[in-house]
Amino acid sequence: MESEERSAKKRKLDDGLEEVELAAPVGDRAMDDNASNDSATKKQKLSHTPEASGDADGDLNPDLGDQIDALEGSSQSNEQFEVGVNEQEPTDQPGDTENAAAPKLSKNQLKKLRRHEKWESGREDRKVKRREKIKAKKERRREAFKNPDVPNPKVPPAIRSGKRGLDGVQVPITVIFDCDFEDLMFDNEMKSLGLQITRSYSDNRKAPYRTHLAVSSFGGKMKERFDGTLEKQYTSWTGCRFFSEDFVTVAEKAKEWMKEPGGGKIAGALKQDIDSVKPEEEGEIVYLSAESDNTLERLKPNSTYIIGGLVDKNRYKGICYKRAMDRGVKTAKLPIGDFLQMNSRKVLVTNHVLEIMLKWIEYGDWGKAFMEVLPKRKGGALKSDLDGSTAGGEDDDEAAAEDIQVDTTTTGGEQNVEAPGTSQALAQGKDAATDSTAA
């Protein structure tokens, strides 16, 4: 009987162990907490049963306690493993993705970016300073008008509101800037070309003899810059037209506006030897290029001259010449080699070419026009001046040779060459020494 009761109790304990094992944790942290609580409850219940506390045999209690302790240890190990895995998992931060996607800038790019931001931030301040400067000039001019007897060379010319009038004489000549080279230039070169065209308009506007100006192939980045950075100031330029067509089409249009009543009159150097200009030579279209074999001897009335709007640092040599030849347009070069001795290439920037042409219309002398316009860094010098200085130098050498005195009364048969006045100075020195000795 006792053996049957012991067998029943053993089966009951085994069933309790199976329930504890089924409630053991697998991977979930919440299940671990519940399982540990259940195992503790089971252990407490089993410890209060008479068989577990005071059974006569006592052979089941140690095994049951060891199994429960093993189950609790496995629960704690699973918790530690999950905590370690969570600590090792990388946390996604939004800043890391942005930093990885953002491109890295070099020091020079950062400096340029800061300078551009600084320039843009000071735009309004510069406008205010310009207004104050103009106001100060007007005040100084009013003071000068009040005291006309007091000379004031620093008084600026009158500043009128609105569009200023053009004081120069309009002549029937058109200069076209061919700007169809955008694909060959960098952004800074495009910026330089825009400044050169702006300077050309300013020079033509203030010249005593003005030409018609036109810009062909106007579009792309050039137009974006003129519309944005320059705030569409070109739309109010007087005597300058902008076209999206190429230079050949614009040159044909130039013939029409030069025939209009306001097309200009023949004046300045255009009057010189006007009879020598053949009728068929008037109204010609010439593309100016340094590679051309033809030399431009003079400007002719009702003619159109094309200047290549290209800033390339001499990367594309002869491209303007090839462009003109492909379109069947006559080419010519300025007579720089006939008048100047140059230390560099005979390639000029856009505004210098126009300014030289304006100076020729004013003076009728290419040499004088070159010397007034070309910068000193070009090292240009008039050939006439060089020839004169060479001849003058030879005459001076001959005169100096005649003044040299040769003394052949030296010992050893050598000749002493004395400059003029040397013997007289020595004689005066001897006399002075004699006087001092006598004293």
Automatic annotation (TrEMBL):
Basic residues biased stretches: 128-140
Residue ranges, compositional bias (Acidic residues): 393-405
Domain of life: Eukaryota
InterPro entries linked: MT_TRM10-typ, MT_TRM10-typ_sf, tRNA_m1G_MeTrfase_euk
Region described as Disordered: 1-163, 382-439
EC number: 2.1.1.221
Catalytic activity as recorded in UniProt: guanosine(9) in tRNA + S-adenosyl-L-methionine = N(1)-methylguanosine(9) in tRNA + S-adenosyl-L-homocysteine + H(+)
Every SAM-dependent MTase TRM10-type domain range: 161-381
A single BP term in Gene Ontology: tRNA N1-guanine methylation
GO cellular component annotations of the record: nucleus
Entry protein name: tRNA (guanine(9)-N1)-methyltransferase
Record organism: Lophiotrema nucula
